[in-house]
Each structure stands twice: as structure tokens, then as C-alpha cells.
Amino acid sequence: MIEGLNHVTVIAEDYERTLAFYTQLVGLELGHRPDLGFPGAWLYAGGRAIVHLYADRPVPAQRAGVIDHIAFTARNLAQVKARFDAAGTPYELRRQAGAGTWQLFCHDPNGARVELDFDPGETA
């Protein structure tokens, strides 16, 4: 029986830009990663490694494959927006019909579509 999603792995075409995107903009934390014999990083949220970055793999020709996007539950919408605005990183902000959840859509430096979901009670 499935208990949850363990992690997502991103092949970083530009490792430093990708690391900065997920830590400085999205807000994940760089954390412990065992020596796996190749370069990369594990990024944490809530004490769990949820995004793994590969720093030594070629990006596949078909970048997105069948996965449309990665979605994270987030908070502090105003602060996150301010970080994206200060970095000049484009995004689309909208409210989910019905539930009112704030959804911030953007792309990481490798072209992966990322969604950040915020509580409807937050203000933009």
C-alpha cells in the first residue's frame, strides 16, 4: 500500500542555478546526503529529503516526459512572491476554482514546471 510520495529527482543541467532555484526561491533546505559516488544534493522540507538533484547526468532529449509538474504545499505567499519578483523569475499566480487555493506556477532552470500551493486564507 502506498503511504505517500518519497521524493522527486531532478537532472540539473545547470547545477548551481538549479540548487539556487530550489533553495533560495522555493525555500527547500540543503541537507545531509550520503556519499553516493556521484555529485548532487538532497533538498529537505519538514525534515524529509523530498527533492534529489543530479549534477552529473545529461538532460534527456524529451525533458518533461509524461510528468506535467511537481507541486509543493507552501506558506507565506507574500514572502515567496517577493523572492521571485526580486530574482526576476517569471511566475503565474492564480486561485483554484472552488477551493480558493493560491497556486504559483513557474519553471525551474531545467524547464520542469513547479507549482506552489498556498492556503486560501493567505493574501497575495
UniProtKB/TrEMBL annotation:
Classification via SUPFAM superfamilies: Glyoxalase/Bleomycin resistance protein/Dihydroxybiphenyl dioxygenase
Signal peptide boundaries: none
Domain VOC as annotated: residue spans: 4-119
Pfam families: Glyoxalase
Name of this chain's protein: Glyoxalase
Organism: Ramlibacter agri
